[in-house]
Amino acid sequence: MAAAAAGRAWDPTISLRLGHPALVLLERCHGAGPFRAILAHLLRLGLAFDTFPMSRLLHFATAVSSPRLTREADLLFRHFTPRPNLYIYNLMLSAAAAAGDSPRRAAALYRSMLASSVHPDERTFLALLRSVERLSAGRQAHARVVTSGFHSRAYLRNSLIKMYLDAGAVETAELMFRSTPVQDTVSFNIMLSGYVNEGCTSKALQFFREAASRGVAVDQYTAVALLTCCGRLKNAVLGRSVHGVVVRRIDPGDWGLILMNALLDMYAKCGEMDAATRVFGEADEKDGISWNSMVTGFVNAGKLDLACKYFFEAPSRDLVSWNALLAGFARYKDLSAVIKLFDDMLASRVNPDKVTAVTLISAAASNGSLNHGRSIHGWVVKGFGLKDAFLASALVDMYCKCGNVKGGYSVFEKALDRDVTLWTAMISGLAFNGDGTEALDLYRKMQAEVVTPNGVTLLAVLSACSHAGLLDEGCRIFDAMKQRYSIEPGIEHFGCMVDLLARSGRLTEALALARRMPMRPSRSIWGSILNASLACQNTEVAEIASKELLHLDPAEEGGYVLLSNLYAAGGHWNHSDKVRQNMERKGVKKSAGASNFGS
Predict the structure, then answer these.
(1) Is the pLDDT of residue 508 over 60?
(2) Which of 25, 202, 269, 441 has the fewest C-beta atoms lying within 10 Å of its C-beta?
(3) Over pLDDT 90: what percentage of the chain?
(4) Which residues contact 95 (CB under 8 A, 6 or more apart)?
(5) Cα(137)–Cα(155) distance, rounded to whole angstroms?
(6) Count of CB atoms within 10 A of residue 350's CB?
């Protein structure tokens, strides 16, 4: 048969009907081995060089074979396809987009296509848009769509909207959506999902309200996006409302596993584990995501017994479920349970990842267990090396919390990639252990290496200045936050600065800063002023701080006792009695062992 085929001229009419025996075999082919045998046969027959047989070979390699035979497809296209047509170009563009190849590869294919006078169609641009990584490349693709006359195609317009949303250009996506002649459920869901993925939860909910008022239908994709919003907001009331919409508007037969998992995830994130358990029990189909949602939900709710129950009842356990349970035991500082579970994980041949590593390191840090920490450090270096700055940061934090600053500094110096997180961890560790001057020296070294600090870094440096009494340096850093780094100070930064001023005896300035803060001062801020004023025997400032503390927590008896004693120490017996009477009138009882009122 092969000899007969080789002896006759190629007939495109027959070939297009897939009548050639080799092409029939190709259409029935399964696996890379048979494909390579058929390819060799077609090459021997000289048929592979014709456009149609080559298109079938490329179709199998890029769209049918699992895994995809990307390397073979690329070789065939570059060396054995002298006259690729539109179909072949589209196959290669789609393969490049699906494989996540460099956008330059897709751009090069598109330029080759134009140079060969092959005109693009809608499929060409859909593949091109899927390969976009940078917004500038996306805008160029959009311009090509317009100049080619395809901008009115609904599917292509929806793809453009999605591309802009994925690139973070929300305003451009909104502009395109508003200018769309017909806004259907698909375009609506793309916008809604885009808002959710960009973290614009409030905007997503407002968009849904507006669309619902125009009568846009709700399907399972709409519901999944809305449930994701509710989970992120931890708004159980809103989540139940969406659940009600799902029940009323979507036929139970159309729910699907994705929607069921979205419901589970929403209730779990909102801490509504009773509702999550009901949804889980009513589900006809469950997968690993369903079981993991239950395990994670009970871990976050602090119910480790129920988390373990679902973990061990699950048909299979993946890395996510192991990590979730490990994090639960680590959160409650049960290091022995963490170590045992980790050993079970390795025995089950589940490969740990960096999340596992950070959980183990954090567990050792929380328990102050240096020996376990060193063992985990050895495993981390063996499994992940010294390149990862995030793991190095966790190790630095662990050593410093265990009181071994030297060990933390050794990790810091050996790290190959020192990002702002790693610098911050080391500075925080030094400050935590009272090495304020060394922390400040390291901060200066960080600046010399042109690493820009973030808010957490500056908080660590201010804390170091406060503990070391470095007032002038602390003031300079606090002023530089907004002026140099455009970082708005938070309540923690103000707290450090107030504490620094108060410790330095600048009580008037500390009081003034507390009063002009853009947010309400916390108990710890007024506590810093009070402690410093008592140390300086400044009863005037101490009285102000005590009153502020009482205002924040009227039911706290310590504040009344302290204020009464302040008045008594200054000989203001009438004021002392009034404070005691006020305490009794509000029903605040003095605990046994508390200081007596002055008399």
Answers:
(1) yes
(2) 202
(3) 43
(4) 62, 63, 68, 70, 73
(5) 20
(6) 16
Instruction: Report pTM.
Output: 0.72
Q: Contact 491/464 with Cβ under 8 angstroms?
A: no
Whether the bond between 352 and the residue before it is cis, its omega within 30 degrees of 0, is no
Nearest Cα residue to 362 out of 349, 353, 372: 372
Output the six-digit token pair for 385: 């090396």
Helices 103-115 & 122-130 angle (0-180, nearest 10) = 160
Question: Going by C-beta distance under 8 Å and a sequence separation of 6 or more, which residues neighbour residue 525?
Answer: 491, 494, 495, 498, 499, 514
C-beta separation of 129 from 141 below 8 A? yes
Position 202 scores a pLDDT of 84
Contact between residue 487 and residue 458 where contact means Cβ atoms under 8 Å apart? yes
Task: Take residue 115 and report the two structure tokens written for it.
Answer: 């140079």
Q: HSE of 345 in the Cβ direction (CA atoms, 13 Å)?
A: 23
Q: Which amino acid is at 501?
A: L
Encoding tokens for residue 400? 């410093």
Q: Looking at this protein, which amino acid is placed at residue 122?
A: E
Q: Which residue has the tokens 């600046």?
A: 447
Please give the full DSSP string across 96-127, using - where no structure is assigned. HHHTT--HHHHHHHHHHHHHTTPPP-HHHHHH
**Measured in whole angstroms, how far is the alpha carbon of residue 475 from the centre of its chain?**
34
Place of tokens 């999944």: 224
